[in-house]
TrEMBL record:
Organism: Penicillium bovifimosum
EC number: 3.2.1.99
Compartmental location: Secreted
InterPro entries: GH43_arabinanases, Glyco_hydro_43, Glyco_hydro_43_endo_a_Ara-ase, Glyco_hydro_beta-prop_sf
Protein name: Arabinan endo-1,5-alpha-L-arabinosidase
Signal sequence interval, chain numbering: 1-15
Biological process annotations from GO: xylan catabolic process
Enzyme class per UniProt: hydrolase
Length: 324
């Protein structure tokens, strides 16, 4: 009897707060968001032709479509893949310039490559493409969804989806992998073991591995089984180089992973997330979602329907939670 009341309170407290506000152009797909060092302007990059780019004076907007980052497409050529159709940008600042990692891939196959481009300003057309980072092909992983991180002064690349889920490799420079061997850092052994779109972020004493799990896209009137659509999970590690566990202490290489954000209200299938330390707002997680109303009224899934969402992350007992 008495147990019931705290249970109810817990259930209420765990409902997700709404996403933060957005004005202007609020479209995004697999977004990467970063603030320019020189003038504090925000840039948001998305999957699409030449990497669609939006900029804004703040996380909230007003966001403006400023064109394609690499309008001429990547110099990488893959059989049956349009080199202008570039996926999953990941952008970081290092050595006085911006590095953009990106993907060319034939959907649903392991015909994929991760490439890199650099720019001093991030303005459309200012990017110099350097082609592939030199990640070796392997049946155990798919070379998609790059997420760079510096740990102990060394460059690391996290990547992957399906097949063996999330892998990590040390890079000899921000442009090249070199001879290091990739190793698995997260895996869901169940059914289709879908994990992708990872993003690693240091906060306090831990490195946090955020990833998207579940079914991406194919969002039409037909609903996947409840909870099977895209959602965001998190794991943590002291070294950032493996040994990721979830909040129950379960290894993230053995189907561990703590739920951070799933469908709620108009936010259907949140994923493709990244994390940003914002000087005004604190730690911000940004992501894309498919508006529920659009999903309920469409018969064809369309990338143009995705939207940009963001929330401030709060921290409790060393774990992030989604704040308003
Ligand atoms: C692992 O995959 C199963 C089946 O798709 C899913 O129900 C479960 O939530 C996933 N677990 C994690 C930790 O991602």
């Amino acid at each position: 009897m008495f147990g019931l009341i705290p249970l109810l309170f817990t259930a209420l407290a765990s409902a997700y707060p709404n996403r933060g506000p957005c004005t202007g152009n609020c479209w995004a797909h697999d977004p990467a968001m970063i603030q320019r060092v020189s003038d504090g302007k925000y840039f948001r990059f998305s999957t699409g032709m030449g990497i669609p780019t939006h900029s804004s004076p703040s996380v909230k907007g007003p966001w403006t479509d400023i064109g394609a980052a690499i309008p001429e497409g990547s110099s990488i050529h893959l059989d049956g893949v349009d080199s202008k159709n570039i996926w999953a940008p990941d952008v970081h600042y290092q050595n006085d310039q911006y590095y953009m990692y990106y993907v060319l891939s034939k959907i649903g196959t392991q015909t994929s490559e991760i490439g890199v481009a650099t720019s001093k300003t991030m303005e459309p057309g200012s990017w110099t493409d350097h082609g592939v980072i030199g990640l070796p092909a392997n049946n155990n992983y798919n070379r998609i969804d790059p997420a760079w991180i510096s740990i102990g002064g060394k460059n690391y690349m996290n990547f992957g989806s399906f097949w063996g889920d999330i892998y990590q490799v040390e890079m000899e420079s921000p442009l090249k992998v070199g001879g290091a061997t990739p190793y698995q850092i997260s895996w869901n052994a169940t059914l289709n073991h879908r994990e992708e779109g990872s993003y690693e972020f240091k906060h306090g004493d831990y490195y946090y591995l955020f990833y998207s799990a579940g079914i991406a896209g194919k969002y039409t009137k037909t609903f996947p089984a409840e909870g099977a659509e895209y959602h965001i999970r998190v794991c943590r590690s002291k070294t950032g180089l493996g040994d990721f566990v979830d909040a129950d202490g379960k290894s993230c290489k053995e189907t561990g992973g703590t739920m951070l954000l799933s469908s709620h209200g108009q936010v259907f299938g949140p994923g493709g997330q990244g994390v940003l330390n914002d000087k005004d707002l604190g730690v911000v997680m940004y992501y894309h979602y498919y508006p529920l109303a659009t999903k309920q009224s469409t018969t064809e899934s369309d990338n143009a329907n995705y939207r940009y969402g963001w929330n401030v992350l709060g921290w409790k007992d060393g774990w992030p939670y989604v704040k308003s």
